[in-house]
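agent> Task received from the user: take the single chain below, predict its 3D structure, and emit structure tokens. No templates, no multimer pairing.
agent> Plan: (1) validate residues, (2) run structure prediction, (3) serialize to tokens, (4) report one or two observations.
agent> Step 1 OK, no nonstandard residues flagged.
tool_call: predict_structure(input=
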Amino acid sequence: MRFPRLRQLVIASDTTDTIDTLKDIFALGEPFPDPGVGEFGLVNGVFAIGDQFLEVVVPVTETAPAARFMARGGPGGYMAIFEVEDIEATRTNVDTLGIRRVWDIDLKDISASHLHPADLGGAIVSVDQPRPAGEWRCAGHPGTREGGGPESGWEQRVGGGCRDAAGRFMRAAILAATILLAGCTVTGEGVDLPETVSADYAAREAMMRDPTDRCGPEFIQTRLPASFVNVVGAVTDGPFRPVCQRHDACYRLQEMTQAECDRRMKREMAAVCASGKSTPTYSLPMVGKSLCRFHAGLYYDAINNTYAAVAYGGRPGGQIVNVATRVIDDPVTDDEFEVCVDVLNNTFAMQEYDIEMRGRKGKLIDREPDTHETNVGVGETKTMCVSTNYTRWSLKDLPDEVQVSLRCDTPENFSVRHDMIVVDTVSVKVR
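)
tool_result: status=success, residues=431
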């Protein structure tokens, strides 16, 4: 286990509706209500994402610190909690740097300190050392707080902490990518460390920039409930807004491929994080650069896919560049026939493919993959195979020649399988 590590992000809201909004949008399980936060004049809901946690706190008293926080800047990212290996060494380092501790606690199973937000320029930061490492009372562990238990949908995690028993990876990934941005409480216009390009290209790209462009998917501003937008909309840029604006312009200009635009954005975000000047929040001792890099990684993962191809405006395309066949001997039943093709994405955007094998009069023999498409990046080649295996067909049923077609998902929308078009076809001899 590497330390320090981010374990929990906290959003302050003026209504518990935010908890329900997050639960409904991302189809999460029931949040854990931690009665321990009553000490701070709060009610809350805690969602588990793997062994990390997202918490929404709502003040119930006017004097609650979270109420004062929202009075200054409205709802938003409120707190980041980090697990450390040695709390006493961390406290000594914090004190040496002149950062004030506003709350300390030392219990049998955990020690923690909250750091003064005015000294950090961002959210409240808590540094915590649980015992044993990996246990997480701060998330409302049902074994250490009242009110939890298996009936609530929460269970004790082997090695500590809590998790949603459903374990829905994709939803968790989307949620983490969205909420981390809200939890960082980053302000300002960001840092601009552009990668060197030719003067001519820079001028053409600059003409494509729109000052209203920002980081994060458009749906955050246009499709989500206003209460949720108020929580995350103001902080989705982090320190990367100039980088995101240049990335959007790169997409519009389309002189670079989607992959080239994406990789340049990744390198520029890395430069921002390496500078140590991204924002006060990301300049925190020990954890600032790591948190910045994690934030950047989430952004890159969000664009390095076929969904970004929609934003890029890519058109379907691809090519079969190699064909290999084999007979699959079956000593029990009839022999089977397999065709494998190398698929080249020779377009400017990431594509989703499947392949079909058809026989006489276009009769479908096999289509692979069965339930999803295969992502292939710009300029990449992947091998895809179809066969008579596990179909009603066998080698003896095939004509002397079959047709193998490469199908591509049209990137203009997110429809599944209903908008696949054939972009290449080859004839394959069976005998």
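agent> Step 4: summary for the user.
The first strand starts at residue 5 and ends at 12.
agent> Done.
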